[in-house]
Inverse folding.
């Protein structure tokens, strides 16, 4: 009886990082819905995605973090594993498949791991209702200890999280620590302002992400 040899062909998959913006009405898409949106859009665009093994295979897709509902961002990241396409091929296929507010700005093979993210810049646009508001006094607020309740029963000092903060009229330009050991939701900056002033309407936009060397994360 002759021996039967079965040859199994293995396809090569590469990791690609997609950088995208989440602005306008898209800021109200939850992280779970965003995951589903990307999955459906990538499949519709014909991207040859790598799937997990087992009884319920799923496409291998991972986001760097979950953006808070209502926060806009110019620098969100998601990684996929794809087959024969190049980064340029993927960009051309997916750049127009997403709904308004989701704008793909780059696709590339990453050289920097997500764990190397160290800081994030936010712009917080706000309107203060307080009549006693003074710009100089406002700046001094964050030069001192500012204790807020990060979550029920957990109090933190904002000074431990703020790397840089610049105030201009109606805008807080702040860089916060966001590495694997320490993370601060920018909503906590609003809590700090509310200790002294009454904040009316405000909005938050994620501007840029930096690595441990201080460079723009890519």
């Amino acid at each position: 009886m002759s021996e039967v040899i079965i040859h199994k062909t293995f396809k090569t998959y590469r990791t690609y990082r997609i950088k995208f913006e989440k602005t306008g009405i898209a800021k109200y898409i939850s992280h779970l819905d965003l995951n589903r949106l990307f999955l459906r859009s990538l499949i519709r665009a014909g991207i040859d995605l790598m799937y997990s093994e087992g009884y319920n295979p799923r496409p291998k897709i991972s986001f760097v973090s979950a953006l808070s509902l209502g926060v806009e961002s110019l620098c969100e990241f998601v990684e996929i594993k794809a087959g024969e396409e190049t980064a340029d091929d993927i960009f051309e296929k997916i750049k127009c498949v997403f709904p308004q507010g989701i704008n793909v700005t780059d696709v590339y093979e990453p050289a920097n791991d997500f764990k190397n993210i160290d800081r994030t810049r936010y712009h917080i646009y706000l309107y203060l209702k307080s009549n006693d508001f003074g710009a100089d006094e406002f700046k001094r607020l964050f030069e001192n200890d500012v204790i807020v309740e990060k979550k029920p029963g957990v109090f933190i000092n904002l000074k431990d999280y703020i790397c840089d903060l610049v105030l201009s009229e109606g805008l807080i330009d702040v860089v916060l620590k966001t590495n694997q050991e320490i993370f601060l939701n920018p909503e906590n900056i609003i809590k700090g302002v509310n200790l002294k002033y009454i904040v009316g309407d405000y909005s938050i936009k994620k501007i840029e992400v930096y690595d441990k060397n201080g460079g723009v994360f890519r």
Residues 14-111 form a domain with the Alpha-Beta Plaits fold (CATH 3.30.70.580).
